[in-house]
Every structure is written in structure tokens, then in C-alpha cells.
Specification:
Layout: H1 9-42, H2 49-72, H3 79-94, H4 107-132, H5 137-164, H6 167-199, H7 201-206, H8 208-227, H9 244-248, H10 251-261, H11 268-284, H12 288-303, E1 307-312, E2 317-322, E3 338-340, E4 345-352, E5 355-363, H13 372-421, H14 440-531, H15 536-634, H16 640-671
Antiparallel strand pairs: 1-2, 1-5, 3-4, 4-5
Helix pairs in contact: 1-2, 1-3, 2-3, 2-10, 2-14, 3-4, 3-10, 4-5, 4-6, 4-8, 5-6, 6-8, 8-10, 10-15, 11-12, 11-13, 11-15, 13-14, 13-16, 14-15, 15-16
């Protein structure tokens, strides 16, 4: 029976983040499902089919924008205010006919639309603060929570006034305090936060693109809604519910989507691609310092820092880019995340916490540059690099062990050569001669010690070969897991490409709606011309609708261009992921080849040990012969023929020993690893 595989904890956390951040969108869809069927009975003036299709089309586009952000960055802090903003704008568009001055007879309309109208202003300010000042979240979080609480109090006050029939209270809170004070202050606060961040020298350079799109979103989407209270042309209703200010509200989430996509340190796919590319270069390269310098240069460019330092322990290496304090390059490595001078410095360990392989130190150009987003981005960026450094450290340790083993084998070969030179040379003549006084037992004892040393080193060589094979197998398994992670990342990139195609199709629908709106405005202008002076005011409104349709079409073109650029980036990410996958596959093949070489080294060690053991009986036999020769030397009364036969036998035996020792020395010289 097949067991269901457990889900990845990271994927489970991402799903939980999507649920927590996406509840406003689900609530908005539920409100649409309740409010749209009730519109004919709650609205005194019915709206045309074209106007209803336009409003619902823009609302669906806002929901799609929220879905894009939920898919790409579910756990990012900017996701929650953006999803709430998109859900609020979508509801205000879909149920636009219900958004009018509250009265005692429209309590149902107020309950459906008022919570979204009151939530719009704090959401705009919250989104602007998350884009421009996320590193100061602790300072403005209480202020924005207080703003939400204030809006909730105003909503409850208006609801109580409606229930009790206090028209003066409703007019004071909803018609004066919210419209004339709260919402203008919110627009000024949102634009002021974005402009202040844009004018900050270093922060403005990092967030320039996102801040410009945020300013455009607030100015084109939110400000017209406020001007409608003072300029009647912006608030003139035609088709029962459609106003220029209401249609302009759609630009708020659409342009904010471009601002969110432009935020740095948010794109996890691009981050992982860069990290795996640098890790592959570090694994394949021979110069460790050069690979670390590429990593430091990439971080220096990504964070626009004043200086970057990368330190590793084995082998001890330090690489710096820019200006880094000298005292920061000494001392123990950081075991956890560290930040100093109000987050102007960021120190992240490489590898496991508590036992790091090294550390990366970033020096910012301004106070408060590093927050949780930058810290988490850097920690995820260093994960594949830490795995590669751990592999390189094991390789260096293996090379050192091989060098030590080669040194021991070289010493053994020198001992064997010395023992072979001490063997006596066979006589050249056949006549009787007295052999030189040689103690063969001492020579054979030295030979026996050498063979014992060979057997001992052979056992150590087999153990080292087994350890090298196990480590090569572990490196191959780690790279295989990395290859599986790259395959999953490639599937996620393919899903993003398909989602980009759906966004492009929805954008085409919006372009068609804008075109039909333009045609309606042109027809209205013709009718106003035919009506003469009586239709002059209607002609002005038709001209404003035409301008709004042109603005919507231009925004749709900008979104289409951004979506096309995003699709091109996703395609590039897919290509680079494929090349990285091929590089990891080649590295796996190399690791398997190393494992095979370790297996051959193990077999050679076993053969060496067997050869050394086979020599022991021969040496024992030679020792017996040497004892016999000593006995014959002490008994010179034996016949000369017997003495010569014994000497000839001893000479042949020693010649065989010499040949065996020379063959053994040649075999060991071929097995000695190079330093």
C-alpha cells in the first residue's frame, strides 16, 4: 500500500501565509455574491449593461492583481495591505451604485459598502508605508493600527446614527469628518511618505522604481476620488453609477501591482537562481578566493552597500569589497544573525547555526538599511553556498589525507629499497670459496618488519579508501537533492509563466472594455452636439469619460508591457535553471567517478595487503635456511661438495627474494598517490 508523501514544511507555511493574507479577497468575493443580486432592488436608478460590465470587469482585474501578489510573495509584509487594497477597490467598483450618502432607508446598502469605503484610506497609507519605510515598521505600526481603529469607530458611529435616526450625527461623521478631514489627510500622508523615501539619497536609489509607481497609483487612483467632493465634474453620475472618479479608482491597485513587483529583495526565484549560479561556479572553480569575490561583488551590487566582507574558516580565507572595519575581520564567527548601529550592519553566518563555516558582513550607507526582509533574503541566498563550501571543505580534508598516505608509502618504499640493498650477491665463479661473513637472520628480520609495515599501511589505505568512497557518495546524494530542488523551482517558474498568460488575457479584456467606453463617450458627445446648448454640460461629461477611457487604455498598455517583460524574465529564469541543472548533473557524474576511483583504490589496498601476507611464509622459510647456513659455518668439517650445494641453494633463494622485493617496490610505486 502506497503511503502519501508528507508535504514540504516550506510549502505548508506558504499555503498558511496565502490563507492569512488572502482573507480580504475571499470576503470581497462573498460580498459581491451577496450584493450584485440585490442591486436592482436597492438602487433607485438602474444602470445599463455596458456600465455594469465595465465595473465588474475592473473589479475582476483588481482580484487578479491580488492573486498575482499572493502567488509570488505570500509571506511578504507588503502582501496583506496590497491584497486588502485590491479587495476594497474591487468591491467599491463592483457595488458602485450602493456607494452614496447614507440614509435611514438604505441600511442594507450601508452594511454592504460602508466597511470597504472606510477601510480604503488607512489601507492606502499602510501600503505606502510598507513600500517606502518597511525598516521603520516598529515606529509607524502603532500609528497605522490607531488609524484603523479610528475608521472603525467612525463606521460604528454612523451605523448607530442610522439605527437611531440621528441624521445630524451621520452628516457630521460621514459627510464632514471622514470626507473633508480623514481622507485628505490620508492622501497627503501616503504621498508624503513616498516622496520622503524617494528623496532619501541611498534609499531613493534602491526603491526609485517602486516609489514612482506608488506615487502614480495614489495620485491617479485615490486623489480623483477626493477631488470629486469639490469638483462636481468628477462626481457626475451617468448610467446610474459610473463616475470619472469611480473609474479612476481602478488605477490604484493596478499601478500598485507594478510597484510591488518592482520591490527589491522580494523575488525568491531570481534570488535562488543567482545563489545556485554562484554556488555552481564556486564548486567547479579551482580558486576559492575568486569564487568568494564574485559572491561579495554580487551582494555589494544587490544591497548597494558601503562594504562587504566574506570570511570562511577552512581554509582560512577573507575577501572584502569596499570599506569594511579592520576589527570586524578578526575574532570568532557569528553563530546567529547580528545587527548593529540600528541595523546599519548585518552579519549572517554561513552554514548551520551554532557551527558556522564562516560569515558574511554587510556595511550599509545609512542607518536602518537592514530589516527582516533583507536578513531573510540574505539567509536564503547563503544556503546553497554553504552546502558547496561544506563539500569543498571535505574535499580539502580528503586531499590532505591522501598526501599523508602518500608520504607514508614513500617511506615504506625507501625501507624496502634499503633492505634489498643489504641482500648478499651470488658468487660469480663455480670454484670453492668461503662466503663473506653475513648475518642473514638480521637482514631477514628487517625484511619481516618492512612487510609488517606494508600490511599495516595497506589496512590504513583500505580504511581511507572506504571513507573517501562514503564521502563521495554523500556528496553525490546532496547534489541529487539539490537537483530535485531545482526541478521543483523550474516547475514553479513554468506555473508563473502560465499565470502571466492569464493576466495578459485579462488585460486584453480590460482594453476592450476601455475601447467600448470610448465609443459610448463618442456617441454621447454626438448626442450632446445635436442637442445644442441644452446638451453642453453632457458634452463636457462625455469628454471626461473619453479621457478616462484613454487613461485606462494607457494603463492597460503599461500593464501589458510589464507583463510581457515579466514573461521574458520568467523565460530567462527557466533557461538559466536548465543550465544550472545540467551543471549539477555533471557534478553528480564526477562524484560517482570519484566513488569508483575510491573503490579501485580499496581493491589495490586489499591486493597490497594480500601480497605482504604472502611474503611472510617465504621470509620464514628463508630464516630457516639462514639458520642452517649458520650451523654449517660452525661445522666446517662437512664435505666441500655439501657446503657448495648449500651455498648454491642459498644463492638461488636470495635471488628469488630480490626479484620478489623489486616487483613489490614497483607495485607500491604505481599505487602511491601523487601529493
Amino acid at each position: 500500500m502506497n503511503e502519501t508523501p508528507a508535504l514540504d514544511p516550506a510549502l505548508q507555511a506558504a499555503d498558511r501565509s496565502r490563507i492569512l493574507a488572502g482573507w480580504p479577497l475571499l470576503l470581497a468575493v462573498a460580498t459581491w455574491a451577496i450584493g450584485l443580486p440585490l442591486l436592482p432592488g436597492l438602487v433607485p436608478t438602474p444602470i445599463t449593461g455596458t456600465a455594469a460590465a465595465t465595473l465588474v470587469g475592473f473589479a475582476v482585474l483588481c482580484a487578479l492583481a491580488a492573486g498575482v501578489v499572493l502567488l509570488r510573495m505570500p509571506a511578504d509584509p507588503v502582501t496583506r495591505p496590497f491584497v486588502g487594497l485590491a479587495a476594497t477597490v474591487g468591491t467599491l467598483l463592483a457595488l458602485a451604485p450602493l456607494d452614496r450618502a447614507p440614509d435611514a432607508h438604505a441600511l442594507t446598502s450601508f452594511a454592504l459598502i460602508a466597511p470597504w469605503r472606510y477601510a480604503l484610506t488607512p489601507l492606502v497609507v499602510h501600503f505606502a508605508l510598507e513600500v517606502g519605510w518597511p525598516h521603520r515598521r516598529q515606529r509607524w505600526a502603532g500609528w497605522i493600527i490607531g488609524w484603523y481603529a479610528t475608521e472603525l469607530g467612525l463606521l460604528l458611529a454612523v451605523a448607530a446614527g442610522l439605527v437611531m435616526g440621528e441624521a445630524s450625527l451621520v452628516d457630521a461623521v460621514d459627510g464632514t469628518f471622514r470626507t473633508m478631514i480623514i481622507e485628505p489627510i490620508g492622501a497627503i500622508a501616503a504621498l508624503g511618505c513616498a516622496f520622503m523615501a524617494l528623496n532619501t539619497p541611498v534609499r531613493g536609489r534602491v526603491l526609485r522604481q517602486s516609489l514612482v509607481w506608488t506615487i502614480a497609483a495614489v495620485a491617479l487612483g485615490f486623489v480623483p476620488l477626493l477631488l470629486a467632493e469639490f469638483i462636481p465634474a468628477f462626481n457626475h453620475r451617468f448610467d446610474g453609477a459610473v463616475t470619472p472618479a469611480r473609474l479612476a479608482l481602478a488605477a490604484l491597485p493596478l499601478l500598485s501591482l507594478v510597484a510591488v513587483i518592482s520591490l527589491p529583495f522580494r523575488d525568491a526565484a531570481a534570488r535562488d537562481l543567482l545563489a545556485h549560479k554562484l554556488a555552481a561556479g564556486l564548486l567547479e572553480g579551482t580558486d576559492l578566493s575568486s569564487g568568494l569575490r564574485h559572491i561579495a561583488s554580487s551582494l555589494h551590487e544587490a544591497f548597494s552597500t558601503r562594504g562587504v566582507a566574506v570570511r570562511i574558516a577552512e581554509p582560512e580565507t577573507v575577501v572584502t569589497i569596499g570599506e569594511v572595519a579592520a576589527q570586524a575581520l578578526t575574532g570568532p564567527f557569528a553563530t546567529e544573525f547580528e545587527g548593529g548601529v540600528e541595523h546599519q550592519e548585518l552579519v549572517v553566518p554561513i552554514g548551520r547555526s551554532g557551527n558556522p563555516l564562516g560569515e558574511v558582513r554587510l556595511e550599509a550607507r545609512y542607518v536602518g538599511a537592514f530589516g527582516p526582509t533583507e536578513r531573510d533574503w540574505l539567509a536564503a541566498f547563503l544556503q546553497p553556498i554553504g552546502a558547496v563550501l561544506r563539500t569543498r571543505r571535505r574535499e580539502i580534508a580528503g586531499d590532505l589525507r591522501n598526501i599523508a598516505l602518500g608520504s607514508r608509502l614513500s617511506d615504506t618504499l625507501e625501507e624496502l629499497a634499503t633492505s634489498a640493498r643489504q641482500l648478499p650477491i651470488a658468487p660469480a665463479e663455480d670454484g670453492m670459496a668461503v662466503p663473506p661473513p653475513v648475518d642473514a637472520r638480521e637482514v631477514l628480520a628487517q625484511m619481516s618488519d618492512g612487510v609488517t609495515g606494508i600490511a599495516r599501511h595497506g589496512e590504513g589505505l583500505a580504511t581511507t579508501a572506504n571513507e573517501a568512497r562514503e564521502r563521495a557518495r554523500g556528496a553525490s546524494d546532496s547534489m541529487a537533492r539539490g537537483l530535485d530542488a531545482l526541478t521543483a523551482l523550474s516547475n514553479e517558474v513554468s506555473r508563473l509563466a502560465r499565470f502571466g498568460e492569464e493576466i495578459a488575457a485579462s488585460n486584453d479584456t480590460v482594453s476592450g472594455v476601455a475601447f467600448r467606453t470610448n465609443l459610448v463617450a463618442n456617441n454621447a458627445a454626438l448626442e450632446a452636439t445635436r442637442a445644442g446648448a441644452a446638451g453642453r454640460t453632457f458634452g463636457v461629461l462625455a469628454e471626461e469619460v473619453r479621457r478616462l477611457a484613454d487613461t485606462t487604455a494607457a494603463t492597460s498598455v503599461a500593464i501589458g508591457e510589464r507583463t510581457a517583460a515579466l514573461a521574458a524574465e520568467v523565460a530567462g529564469v527557466g533557461t538559466t535553471l536548465e543550465s544550472t541543472r545540467q551543471a549539477l548533473s555533471a557534478a553528480i557524474r564526477e562524484a560517482e567517478a570519484g566513488e569508483a576511483a575510491a573503490q579501485r583504490l580499496n581493491e589495490a589496498a586489499v591486493e597490497l595487503e594480500d601480497t605482504a601476507r604472502s611474503l611472510r611464509p617465504v621470509i620464514s622459510e628463508a630464516n630457516v635456511v639462514a639458520k642452517r647456513r649458520t650451523a654449517r659455518d660452525h661445522h666446517l668439517t662437512s664435505t666441500l661438495e655439501r657446503f657448495l650445494d648449500e651455498r648454491a641453494a642459498l644463492s638461488r633463494t636470495l635471488a628469488l627474494h630480490r626479484d620478489a622485493m623489486e616487483r613489490l617496490a614497483k607495485t607500491l610505486s604505481t599505487l602511491t598517490p601523487s601529493a
